[in-house]
Amino acid sequence: MEDTLLSLAHGFGIAFQPGNLWYAFLGCLVGTLVGVLPGIGPLSGISILLPVTFGLNATEAVIMLAGIYYGSQYGGSTTSILMRIPGEASSVMTCIDGNAMAKKGRAGAALCIAAVGSFIAGTFGIVMLTLIAPPLAAIALKFGPPEYTALLIMGLIFLAYMSSTSLVRTLLMACLGLMLGMIGIDNMTGHFRYSFDLAELGDGIGIVPVAVGLFGLGEILATPSHKVRGEVITPKYRELLPTRAEWRAAYWPIARGSVLGFIIGIIPGSAHIISSFLSYALERRISKNPEEFGKGAVAGVAGPESANNSASTGAFVPMLSLGIPTGPITAVLIGALMIHGVPAGPQLVTEHRDLFWGFVASMYVGNLMLLALNLPLVGVFVSVLRIPYGYLYPLIIMFCIVGVYEVNHSIVDVWIMLIMGVLGYALRKFDFDPAPLVLGLVIAPIFEQSLRQSLIMSNGNYLIFFSRPFSAALMAICIVLLGLSALAYFLKRKDWRAKLAAAEAGEPGT
Amino acid sequence: MTGAAAKKLILRADHISGAFFVAAGLAVIALSGDLPMGQLAMPGAGFLPEIVAVLIIVLGASLFLRAHESPAFASIAWDDGPHAGKVILITAAAVALYVKLGFIVTMVLMMAALMIVIERKNIPRALLYSVAIAGGTYIVFVYVLRSPLPTGILGYW
C-alpha cells in the first residue's frame, strides 16, 4: 500500500509536468466535443486523432487519448439532456430522464448532476484502478501461453455473453475480426496469408482503418442529415445548481452507479454502454416511485451517467495490467501504445512505471478538469450542437481519410477504411454490433501465438488448458457462460439481456 | 398456401447474413489451400485460420437455420441507401485522387461535392467552407504537427 502511494505521488509529479497537463486538457476538451457531437463516438474520435499523437512521447500520447475516452463519457450527457440525442451510445439512457428534466426547466440541474456524478464515479474508478492494477499485473507476470489463451477465450465468450445482440452474432463478429487479424505474414513460419500479392497487406490489416471505417464512416453512411435534427434546450447559468431534494435523490444512485459501473467495466464487453443500461434498470427497480422514470427522475440521470464513467475507468484495469482489451476502445488504446513502442500488460506496470503512474495520476487531474470544463462551458458546447450536420459530416470524412492515411502513409489503408465503412453500414442493417470485430482483430496475433505455443509446449495435448489451475478455472467460467446461454435458448427463457431489452421497451411484466 | 407455409417462405434478414457467413467461411478454406496446417504438436500457418473458418461456417449456418426469428429482409429500412451510396461514391473518388491531386485539392473537391450534391447547400458558402477547413487542417498537420500530407499537383509550393 505504501509503495502504491509513493508510486502515485511520483505519478502526480509526472502528470503535473506542463506538457502532460496540456495534453490531458486537450484530450478532455476534444473528448467532450466528441461526446457532444452526434455521429462521432469515442472510438472513431480516438482512431482519427491517433496520428496526431505520433509526434508526442508515449506518456503524452496515452494521456491525451485516454482523456478523449473519458471526456466523451462526460460530453455525451450534454447532447442527451439538451437534445434527446445520445452523443454516444453509453448516453442513451440519459436521454430519457435527462431530456424530461430539461423540458421541465431543469436542464441545468440535470447537467450538473450528470457532471458531478461522472466526477465522483470517475474518481472512484481511478482509486480502484490504482489499488487493483499493480497487484493484478504482478500475478499476470506468472502467466504462460496456456493462461493467456484461456484468458482471451474467456474474454471473447464474456463479450458474447454480455453483448446486447445474440451470442451467435457476437461470436461471428469476433471470428470475422480474428480472421482479418490473421491476414499478412505469419510470425511463426513466415508464410504470407491472404495478402493477394499486395505488399501493404504483408504487415496485416491495421486497427485504425478498421475502427475508423466501421465506427466513423459506417455511422455517417447510416445517418442522413435529415435525420439529425433536434431542438437544443439552452440551460440558464443560474439554474445550474440542483435543489436540495434533487441532490438527495442523486446521492445513492451515484454511489450504486459507481460500484456497478466499475465491476462491469473490468469485464469484457462494451462495458460503458451496458453499465448505463443496467444502472437505469436497477434504479427503476429499487425506486419507491418507479412511475417517475421517463418523466424526469433524477436517479435516471445520476445512476447511468455515474455507471458509464466508472466503467470506462474500470476497462483500463485489464488493459493496463494484463494487456487484454475489454472492448474496441481499449483495443485501439493498446494499438496506440504499441505504435509508441510500449507493450500493454504487466510489463507496462513493472518496466514503464513513469508512463503507468503518470497516466493513472493524469486521470485524477483529467476528471477535475472535466468537472471544471463541462459546467462553465456548457454554452460553448450548445453552440457546437447548433452546427448543421450537413456541414459537420464532410469534415468528419476528411478527418477519417487523413487520420487513416497518416498512420502508414498508405492509400491501401484508406481503401480498407472505405470498405470497412460499407461493411459497417451493412452490419448495422442486419443488426450486427461491429465492436467484437475490432476486438477480434486486436487479439488475433496474441491469441494465435499463445494457442500455438501452448500446443507446442504440450506436444499437441489440448488438455494443457485444463491441467493448469488458472487456465482451468478460466475455461470452467467459459463453459458455465456457454451453458447459461444454451439453457436460455433451449428453455426459450428470457435471459437477463432479453429482460433488460424488454424493460427498456416498457413491456409489462418485466 | 397455409399461413405457416407462407411464413416459412419469407426471405429473412438472417437468411442473407447466415448464407453470407457460410460463403465467407468456405471462401477462406478455399483460399487456405497452400497454407500448411501442421500437426497439433506443431501447428502451421493454416491451423487457426481454418479453425476460425469452420467456426464461421457453423455459426453462419446456425444463424441461417434460426432465421425465422429475424425480421423479414423486405422490412429492413433502406431509405438512407441513396444518401449512403452518394457518400460512398464521392469518398471513393476522393480516395482514388488523394495522392495524385494532393490533400488540399482533393479535400476541397470532396467536401464541396458532399455539401453541394448531397446536402444542396449554397455553392459559394460550401466552397468557402471547404477551402477554409482544408487549408486550416493542412496548416495544422504540416506546420504544427510536422506530419506531411500529400501535396499532389500543388507540390511545387
Description:
The complex is a heterodimer of chains A (510) and B (157). Chain A has 510 residues and is mainly α. Chain A has one domain (18-231, 241-504). Chain A has helices at residues 2-15, 18-36, 42-49, 58-83, 92-140, 145-162, 167-181, 207-221, 244-265, 271-286, 299-314, 316-322, 328-339, 346-351, 353-374, 378-385, 389-408, 411-429, 435-457, 464-467, 469-490, 496-504; strands spanning 184-185, 192-193. Chain A has a two-stranded antiparallel ribbon. The longest helix of chain A has 49 residues, at 92-140. Chain A is globular, with a radius of gyration of 22 Å. The termini of chain A are far apart. Mean pLDDT of chain A is 83; it is low at 506-510. Chain B has a two-stranded antiparallel ribbon with strand order 1-2. Chain B is mainly α. Chain B starts with a helix and ends in a 13-residue tail after the last helix. Chain B has helices at 3-9, 13-31, 47-65, 81-101, 103-118, 123-144, and strands at residues 38-39, 42-43. Helix content of chain B is 66%, strand content 3%. Chain B has two domains: 7-75, no CATH class; 81-154, no CATH class. The interface between A and B is large, with 60 and 66 residues.
